[in-house]
Structures are given as C-alpha cells and as structure tokens.
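Researcher: Here's the sequence for the chain we discussed earlier.
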Amino acid sequence: MPPPPFGRARKRATNPLDPALGDADLIAARTALTQGRWTAVRELLAHTGTDWDLRGHRLTVLAGTQGAAAWGEEWRIAEPDSADAAALIGCATVARALGDRRYCPEATDACHRAAALAPEDPTPWLALLLLARRRGTEDEVVRLFDAVRVRHQDHHMAHHLMVARLAERHPELGRDPLHEVYDFAAWSAEHASPDSPLAVLPVVAHAERYRVLAAAGSEPPDPAASGHWRSRRARQVLRTAFDWWLEWEERLDRGRIRTDLNYLAHAKFCEGRPAEAAALFHRIGPHATRAPWAYPDRDPYDAFHAARSAALGTA
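Model: Thanks. This is the structure I predict for it:
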C-alpha cells in the first residue's frame, strides 16, 4: 500500500479502505490468519512465488492483521527454516514499530533474519524501507531503496516510498517544476519495462509534492481548486500516463495497479478532465486507496466518492 502522508494530522476516516484492493486470495488468507490458520498464508505465498511486487503487497497487507506477528512465530516454530514465516514476522514487527518506536530494534532484527533466509527476496528490505521512511535518515532510506532495487529493479512499492520521501525535501521551494522528486520519477519511469506501472510514477510525484505544499500552506486544501495539476509539465505527465494506461489496460492485472489508477483518477479529476477520470473510476470500481484522496487533510472515502460521483455525473 502506498505511504501515508506525514504532513498535518488528519481526522480518522469514518469508512475503512481495504488495502487488499480486491485481491480475493489475499483477503481469504488474511481472514484465515486472524483465526490462527497460518497454513492459508503459507499456501498463498507459495503460489505468489517470485512475483516480488505481488509478494510485497500481500505481505504488507497481512502484516497489518491483528496477531500477525504471533501467528508468524507459531509458524516459525513449526517450520524453523521457512523464509515465508520469517518474512511475515519481519513485516508484522515493522508494522508494530511504525506505531511504537520501541519495537524498532526488534523489527530490524526480524527483517535481517528473513533476509538471511532468502537473500534474493527484496521484501525484508522493503519492510526496512517502510520503517526508515518514517523513522530513518536520508542515507538509510537511500541505502535500503538500493537494497530493494538490486533485487528487483522496478519494485513498485519501493519507488512509491522513495517518491514520498523525496517530495518532502525543501517545501520552501514551493511549486518548483525542477524539484528533484520530478526528476527521480521521470528517470524511474523512463528506465522501467514498457508494461511497468512505474509509468504512472511521475503522477504520483505530483500528488506527493502537493501533499507537502498543502501542509505547508502554499497550496489550497482542496486539491481540485489548486493549479498544481494544470501546469504545462503536469499536463504532459498526465497525458503520457493516461496514454500508457490506454495502451496496457487489458494486460494489467496486478494487486497494486489500482493504487496507480487511484493516483491517475485523482490527478485527472483535479486537472479538470472528468471524462478521462470517469474511465478510470469505472476500472477502479470500489477499490479506493487512502493516498492520494486523503491529501492534505481529508476523509479519503468521502473525497473518493465525491470525485467519482462528479466525474460519472451521479452527484
């Protein structure tokens, strides 16, 4: 799931948004895990294999399940050499450390144990990157991003985390079209494989930078009232990303693709292109994501449905 905003405090959403994003197998395994049936998770991860983006998505969602770390420990007792059990424990302890920094040493140790059992797996390093994104220094974030990328060059969630962190640099520069977050996102999209959702990363960069600028008071709190998505560069980025989606739409069936489509629908709506936003809302269905609809201080459920109704003409 995408990184939460770290600007102003937000009111809690009244309607929960499911980070599983409609992944039926993941939802079933998550339900089983809440009941202590970790064998369902073992089967899910075995079928996921080395699809690293999907593995990272599924493990970070499972990590947020109540009791995930405890059930992971039970699994490890039964199967001490299981890299999947170790990865679940690592991700779950990171989720706990994000809420309470006292668990940071435990989370770091758990992730390193998981990494030792599966050196080719980027997921333990992704979990550490999630932690560093909130708690770590810039050097730590860069080092961990590199550790993920050397194992999977186009790692989706890792790039989202990096964009979110870079967007927070130098808020005093305001709406600077040459800000480093835009360069990073453009470079990543250019060097990704043709069917990679990283094609939408420049759009993500614009939303993350808006979050920072709105929190600093240099953009209006209503993103649709901002000109942030109407500059020449922003319009070019949106057009390129939308054209990419039209070209690859039928072949895109990945757990986190709805994250990108939420960013793109949000941007098209803010740009004032309701017809294009409507096409994206049809594809997204009910699977709204917290980011970017929560930016900068909004209830994401309400913001998503208000934009969706306006774009579809059902308001």
